[in-house]
Amino acid sequence: MRDGYRVLTLNRPDLLNAFSAALHGALMAALEAADADKSCRALILTGAGRGFCAGQDLSDGVFTPGETPDLSITIARHYNPLMRKLRDLPMPIICAVNGVAAGAGANIALGCDIVLAARSAKFIQSFARLGLVPDSGGSWLLPRLAGRARARGLALLGEPISAEQAEAWGLIWKVLDDDALMTEAHRLATHFATQPTTGLALMKKALDAAETNDFDTQLDLECELQGDAGRTPDYIEGVTAFFDKRPAKFVGRF
């Protein structure tokens, strides 16, 4: 725990932080703890070693030679709850992609709020190489972030793209030199830890809903959420600080 934010590190560096059942459990527990901690106002998610996450560890009980697996069990038990938890957390999530992000690892990164990538990082929709379909929200995220043509190329070809290409296509927020990645991640987290966290959570909710709402429905939602935001102490503090010509001191969640 840092001052107002937490850093969560996927820690199986010998396997490029590929997901096992144990890693899923540890990450979900850490996310639940952050959600319950009223002093936590931002998260950084990154990976240990030379990679962010290589996706699913195929040696962790999901494939047995001679047997036909039911991969929907793994998706329903682990990946879908993880993606829903990331989406529902009422605080900004910064993903610092420090190396390869493949398969589910790529889509978990893309599902975060602010995605930073080291210049050496690569993003790979590796599902086609195994005869699978993009999961962890990939089939939903890719067309919305990159557009129909690029989404299909990424998914069907399974070719890696560089961090610079991911930035140019709008998949991520920013590329940084490798040695500057975590400095920027901590700078952003420190910034978010001083901001109106409830208002940011409502903003996330509005942006998520806009992906599927029509215009009139979204206007109604904005009206509702703005009403909620205006009743927070941080709105009063923000306006008071504006008139007092001083920096606001936001309290975050309450």
Top keywords for this entry?
2-enoyl-CoA Hydratase, Chain A, domain 1, 2 domains, 254 residues, Lyase 2-enoyl-coa Hydratase, Chain  A, domain 2, globular, alpha/beta, four-stranded mixed sheet, five-stranded parallel sheet
Describe the structure.
- The protein is α/β, with parallel strands linked by helices.
- The protein has ten helices and nine strands.
- It has helices at 21-36, 71-88, 104-110, 138-146, 148-157, 163-168, 181-192, 197-210, 215-230, 233-244, and strands at residues 6-10, 43-47, 51-53, 93-97, 100-102, 114-118, 122-124, 161-162, 174-176.
- The strands form two sheets. A five-stranded parallel beta sheet has the order 1-2-4-6-9, sandwiched between helices. A four-stranded mixed beta sheet has the order 3-5-7-8.
- Helix 1 links the parallel strand 1 and strand 2 (43-47).
Give the spatial strand order of the biggest sheet: 1-2-4-6-9
Helical/strand content category:
alpha/beta
Tell me, rounded to a whole number, the average pLDDT: 96
Give the N-terminus to C-terminus distance in angstroms.
19 Å
Number of strands: 9
Write the CATH fold name of the largest domain. 2-enoyl-CoA Hydratase, Chain A, domain 1
Helix coverage percent: 40-55%
Unreliable stretches covering 5 or more consecutive residues: none
The radius of gyration computed from the alpha-carbon positions, rounded to a whole number of angstroms, is 19 Å
